[in-house]
């Protein structure tokens, strides 16, 4: 395996998602078509981490992950999921953008969480890389708006220490 393929794959997905979010929110109104691609892509990316990457690390070396980092990632993922429920607005996109910057900083780079995970899985990296590449798209629910969604977002951001 070429060292860094998993990290490269996931970081490239971060860049793709950031580009979609910027495009969706760059005008006076949110481009809902582009935002839907971002929304589906971010949920797929979260699934890749939660269902493939983190379990692969736990399988190879149970208890090796830094519990603070793993907890922060899970709290951030919950906040992202909550942020993706309501119809997007420029304000909502701003919150997502800020959370992405904080979250991605934990995962990216030669000393980031992705590099650490790739090192831990070692000889299983090729199989994990293939599984990550094949991760299926996520079915998207309709937007839900209202006070409950706003409260859920605020609770999740607060729990993640991000608001």
Would you mind describing this structure in some detail?
The protein is globular and about 45 Å long. 71% of the residues lie in helices and 0% in strands. It has helices at residues 5-24, 32-60, 67-83, 90-107, 113-121, 125-133, 147-159. The chain is built from seven helices and no strands. The chain has one domain (5-159). The chain has 163 residues and is mostly helical. The protein starts with a helix and ends with a helix.
Outline the secondary-structure elements.
Layout: H1 5-24, H2 32-60, H3 67-83, H4 90-107, H5 113-121, H6 125-133, H7 147-159
Helix pairs in contact: 1-2, 1-4, 2-3, 2-5, 3-4, 3-7
| Low-confidence runs of at least 5 consecutive residues | none
Order of helices and strands: HHHHHHH
Shape: globular
Helix count? 7
CA(first)-CA(last) distance: 40 Å
Rounded Rg: 16 Å
**What's the total count of β strands?**
0
Q: Strand count, sense and closure of the main sheet?
A: none
How much of the sequence is in beta strands? under 5%
What structural category do the secondary elements indicate?
mainly alpha
The level of helicity is over 70%
How many domains, in number, for the residues? 1
Overall average pLDDT: 93
């Amino acid at each position: 395996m070429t060292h860094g393929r998993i990290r490269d794959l996931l970081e490239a997905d971060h860049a793709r998602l950031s580009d979609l979010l910027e495009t969706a929110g760059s005008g006076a109104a949110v481009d809902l078509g582009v935002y839907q691609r971002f929304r589906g892509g971010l949920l797929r990316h979260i699934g890749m981490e939660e269902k493939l990457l983190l379990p692969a690390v736990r399988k190879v070396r149970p208890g090796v992950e830094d519990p603070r980092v793993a907890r922060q990632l899970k709290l951030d993922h919950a906040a992202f999921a909550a942020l993706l429920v309501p119809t997007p607005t420029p304000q909502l996109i701003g919150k997502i953008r800020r959370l992405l910057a904080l979250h991605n900083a934990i995962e990216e780079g030669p000393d980031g969480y992705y590099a650490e995970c790739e090192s831990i899985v070692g000889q299983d990296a090729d199989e994990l890389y293939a599984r990550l590449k094949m991760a299926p798209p996520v079915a998207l629910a309709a937007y839900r708006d209202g006070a409950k969604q706003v409260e859920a977002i605020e609770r999740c951001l607060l729990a993640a220490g991000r608001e």
